[in-house]
């Protein structure tokens, strides 16, 4: 059985052609295009009996808790390619899965999210999530998450890059190292930038003018 989590961060008209791109969102080419951080592993193919549970049998990566302190972060990240402008919509999401016996411990959680970075590209601004798994999330289910975020004028001030992240946040550590902190798999990740409707209208007017001149 597959569950769906849908979080609409901002309401926007989803029209036009996406200008953003994520490379290797299903990890079919290993970790190509992705940067691994913290206590992550993968990618793997048939990581559970019977093969991958994800759509299209996709490969996946896993992030998990460690005993390295709290909060502690692990996961995979990739910059979203393309240009950004106020009014553009970023549609992003993916799939996550918790194996049986790998329940998230305490306040630990895992999300698919976009993160805004400023200055030289290393100054954290904020993030917004498509969906989050917690200790109350069921194991042995594929969670499909999807969200839209509309870029604002304030977001653009000093913006250096936007990344798509699969992020495991360790907020709790078990009393014994022999206990599990939890682990989450992720794959089929995507992020598309849809131009603001006004920009598309201008493109349409420009195209019409060009046709008239040619006529």
Write down the CATH class. Mainly Beta
SS-based class: mainly beta
Our measurement of the CA-to-CA distance between the termini, rounded to an integer number of angstroms, reads: 57 Å
CATH topology: Jelly Rolls
Based on the structure given, which CATH architecture is correct? Sandwich
Query: Order of helices and strands, N to C?
Result: EEEEEEEEEHEEH
List keywords for this structure.
215 residues, mainly beta, Jelly Rolls, six-stranded mixed β-sheet, 2 helices, 11 strands, 10% helix, globular
What's this entry about, in short?
With about 220 residues, this protein is mainly β. It has 2 helices and 11 strands, in the order βββββββββαββα.
Structure notes:
The structure is a single chain. With 215 residues, the protein is mainly beta. About 10% of the residues have low confidence. It has a single domain, classed as Galactose-binding domain-like (Jelly Rolls). The termini are far apart. A six-stranded mixed sheet has the order 1-9-6-11-4-3, with no helix packed on it. The protein contains two helices and eleven strands; from the N terminus they run βββββββββαββα.
Secondary structure topology:
Elements: E1 2-6, E2 35-37, E3 40-44, E4 60-64, E5 72-79, E6 89-97, E7 109-118, E8 123-133, E9 142-150, H1 153-156, E10 159-170, E11 183-194, H2 197-214
Parallel strand pairs: 1-9
Antiparallel strand pairs: 2-5, 3-4, 4-11, 5-10, 6-9, 6-11, 7-8, 7-10
